[in-house]
Amino acid sequence: MAATLLLRLFEQYHSCRSEEDHKGAMKTSVKDIKDFYDDPAVVETYRARRAVQPVGSVLHEREVLFLKQAMEGPSIVRVLDLAPGPARLSAELDPPMLGVAMDFSPNMLREARRQTRARGKSWQLVQGDGYRIPFTQESFDLVYSLRFIRRFERPYRDRLYGEIRRVLRPGGRFIMDAQNRAVALPHRMTRGFEKYPVYDELFLRHELLQELEENRFRVIQIEGIMRRFALQFRLNRLRRLRLSGLARFLIRLLEHTKDKNPSTWMVLCQKKEW
Question: Structure pTM?
């Protein structure tokens, strides 16, 4: 019993040390992160990586479905896609009366323009900085941003939340994604942290809810996706046997199970007034 407890404490210590060492090696400054995502090589591979892997394609499907459902209804007229990258999501979403996709990276915007035009989507693409969104207050009914806010440390995230609140109308809605630390950290330790060169905040559920509450967002819905990630990631390897279709089917099937400990959360919030 004592030996088991000691082993657990030892593993927890090395888990924390590994995460700290990794964070020290990651790109954490705003400038470094912007430069990384404007790199033409990153732009070229960013969208393709998600489409090639069965697990990535199912994750993408789930994100798109969540966003489509959130954008339904007569009250959602003006939508901002904050940091769309190469339009992985906006190229699959029909914008409402006014749909704006804003990114800092000129190279990402070029690819986003190509993707949205190829699919006949009428998003207005704008270059801008998420820390100084170039729109007046209360300009949008809904702002969504995936794989962006979690790239920054807490003080910078708070600034981004503040800008999002500013451009949302009273009662406006906000969607973001978050990674579950209980699932993502062991996975990254196994794969090797060198595969994750850019800062990525990993949350526990209560930490995520508290952070949003502290930034005056009321969580309306939180939905887990990649609900059996350890198994789904193993199924992903079937692609090596040219069984990507079967892998995708099985991974998708597991998304119908309960989301007790998913790898990713999609969170729909509402702007709170004072």
Answer: 0.89
